[in-house]
Design brief:
single chain; about 300 residues; mainly alpha; 2 domains; 10 helices; globular; binds zinc ion
């Protein structure tokens, strides 16, 4: 007779095993992980511009100050169950919280579907998380915090040593200067540096140009530093695509705002928000867009 631990699976255990081994459990786990990280990003969005600690104390209701219990702090679900109100004082809780959580969850799942369970995927998930914080913080307060920008620049440069060179600009330069190309980590790091310099340089020129033309600041140094971080992740070509996409988005939305509201002209557009949205588009659609562009050049 077999010992107990060798008894065949009960239907329930066999079912659980099937679910675990099926293809859908990993994306679901990635989604849940993204929701939890999104909850942390909400804390970053609220506290980093106020220069408060992102670790302590525990979250509390901004109106009545009551600490939020763990069972009321479940991403998306708690907000839905409580009807978007504080359990204690019934003050309305912004829909930004579940929206940021859901957005982060979906972005993480998209990273998994495009890049699989790889180091690349981790890099792009961190990139997406950084962009969520910058995009929403700029939209709310017109601030792109240094802490986030410099964190992004550091992480982007660090990851470049461990991930494949994507851009090709460093290889292009190396082929002209050296008989044989340098090792991959060097190419990848140079790509990251080129992206950071191009992104921040381009934004600095635009900011400086605007200041000289209009005599007032139209764009802060926050955008310049943000594009150094974005550039370190994306490399030269995708960074230029990001600025192009952000300018197009900003122009279209700016024109719509001026058309529909009287104060549209005085409304300070959150350019960091457009840069963040542009960078997310480039993250997922940059490679096919570049291939399409290069095929156009090849025809001539
Ligand atoms: Zn309350």
């Amino acid at each position: 007779m077999l010992p107990d631990c060798f008894t065949p699976d009960t239907p329930a255990v066999a079912g659980a095993r099937r679910v675990w081994q099926s293809q859908s459990v990993i994306p679901l786990a990635v989604l849940l992980f993204g929701l939890v990280i999104g909850s942390f990003l909400n804390v970053c969005i609220l506290r980093i511009p106020a220069e408060k600690s992102i670790i302590l104390p525990a979250s509390s209701c901004p109106k009545c100050g009551k600490v939020i219990a763990p069972y009321d702090n479940i991403p998306v679900l708690s907000w839905l169950i409580l009807g978007g109100k504080c359990r204690n004082c019934k003050t309305k809780i912004s829909a930004m919280y579940p929206a940021v959580e859901l957005l982060t969850g979906l972005l993480f799942m998209a990273c998994y579907f495009v890049f699989g369970l790889t180091l690349e995927s981790l890099k792009w998930a961190i990139f997406a998380a950084m962009l969520v914080v910058l995009t929403i913080t700029d939209l709310r307060e017109r601030i792109l915090p240094d802490a986030v920008n410099f964190f992004g620049l550091g992480v982007g440069l660090l990851f470049s040593f461990f991930t494949k060179p994507l851009d090709g600009s460093a290889l292009w330069i190396a082929n002209r200067w050296f008989d044989f190309p340098p090792p991959q980590p060097v190419l990848s790091f140079v790509d990251a540096i080129l992206g950071a310099v191009a992104g921040s340089g381009l934004l600095w020129v635009v900011a400086e140009g605007y200041f000289r033309l209009r005599g007032r600041e139209g764009m802060g140094l926050g955008d310049v530093k943000m594009m150094a971080a974005v550039g370190a992740f994306l490399g030269l070509k995708r960074t230029l695509m990001t600025v192009l996409a952000a300018s197009l988005l900003g122009s279209v939305i700016g024109i719509v705002l001026i058309a529909v509201s009287k104060k549209g002209r005085d409304y300070e557009l959150p350019f960091g928000t457009f840069l963040g949205a542009g960078a997310l588009l480039v993250l997922f659609f940059g490679t096919p867009a570049l291939q399409w562009y290069q095929s156009l050049l090849a025809v001539k």
